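Table S2 (continued). Query chain:
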Amino acid sequence: MAKLLKSLSKLTQRRPLKRTNSLENLYVKEEEGPKVTRKRSYSFDISSILMNDESNIGQRSSDFVEKILDLKNKIRQGIQRKKSEKNRSRVSGDFLQYICKTFCTEKPEKSSTSRFIVDNLKSAILNTIENKDDIAHIWVGRQDKTSHDIDTVVIVTRSSKSYNLGDKIWGLKILVRCIDTCSDEAANLLIYDTNDSIGSLSGKLTESDIKSLFHRHSNITLINTSNVCSIGYKSKTNAKIEWIPSIVIYCHIKGVIPIGEEAFPKSIGGHRVDVREAVCNFAVKPVQLSEKIGTEGSTRFGTLGGFVTLQNPERQLFLTCAHVLFPINQLKNEKLNEDIKEKEINVVDKDGHQLGKVHKAVFKHGHERDVSIDAALVEIIDQYRYARNGKFAVISPEEISKTGFSEYNMPRFDNGEMEQVTQSNFRQQALKVGAKSGLTIGSLKIGNSCARILYYDIQVGNYFSTTFYKQMEVIPQLDYSQTSESREPFLDNGDSGSFVYLIAHPEPVVLKCIGLAFAKTSHGTCLMTPIDKVFEALGLPFNCLSKFAKEDTQRGNISDILSKLEDISNKMATKEDFKKMNGEISSMKQKFSSTEASVKVLLEKSGIEITHL
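Corresponding output:
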């Protein structure tokens, strides 16, 4: 409190204010001697701070004077008379809460008074926490919808570690929540959005509605539609689900309204609004021992999405997300391609070896009429590292079995085909392979989704808020026997940049690329940008995804089997193992020979001279 008073006094000295009512001696400390009582006064002029707020200039009415006098009385009442051994008095939490309620009524971004009080409140909280790096964000708000007085401090942490901060600070309630921790309401309701029996409300929510919501409510994280409306979810006795198409507004913490803002609307355009908890975070995380791509000197990593082949000159490149390769400061200034020209940005593989350099990047966001884009194109600098087939690098045998594929019908992306999502293919299963979570299966969610994403940096308070419009959402494969907590998400940290595919044909499996995954939600879904919009933003022709010959696929299968045979031999394999493996090799060789003979016949019919095949 002493620090707050000292700062307020400095503000008074910087901006003197002529006034008829003296506000000296507002903060009084009594020192009792044996016979004499002395009073020490502190220059503490709250009015100068209030008048420093541009929004209050000119409001020197009788109401203002009355407000200050009331504050004076509250301050006197708030001073505790008890002395410690060192004869120091302290100010009660009720007084500090009164200060907050009286002067902290607008958004800190708009009010210098609110900003000053909130900054001091943050400092007071951080001073009580040893591991300050674990604190991602601190904000204040109110749980009481009938009053505009702030009553709650929200502390957002990077980890789920518990903090013993007590119930209140400055008379305000404390609420601690991890960055990606939300209630399981949204996850449990996904089951009702896997069909369109009632229909989508996407067309009913206009672009201006979405823009207005994001503008007026800083805590909105996602906007979409649902077939149902959840009522009283936290209630054990009155919770129910109604089959009513609704507009869903998501926020990190339900029930807390940020300072200077109103509660969410109960309806939009005559349609009911349902509020649920969710967060959307870029699927990127510090380096781990798994397949990844990143930049030199950075701990962020993501996933190599897919390969692109360009001509004149012929070269191979690959796609990923821009936020995987660029830090927050560069994403903020929206001049990525200028940064690329000034300095080469080298991309490395999982072993830290240079893989390529950024050729072009787009980070377009915040425009409600356009599809938001988060994409980067990286040119592979070493031709010996060009991809030779469409195999995925991180699919495990467990994932193959769990998702219904087999060793002889594994997902691959050899055809280089991309496709727009339409009514005819909307019901096909979706698939992605990420560097962190590997192979996952899901289905597309009805309608478009718009999300506000907070991207946190290591430095406390350094975060980047960005809004993504007209995105698509992928729901993970739902096992109705599992609880929402045990369900695996479609995307995980480190998977940003993955391509999302539709399974056009299950056996043999045929994949067609439909999008670029860039973010995950706390209830397990994935946000992706339509791939045709990504290509359009990067100026790429729609037919340039790399294609690989099927012959390469068969030769690759034989090589895989031979490699397995050698591995078994090294592990003292039995005769039965060799016999089984030799049989598989013979079968694959016969298939390859048959295909090779068919190709020769076709070439001979075409009058092409065969020298070597």
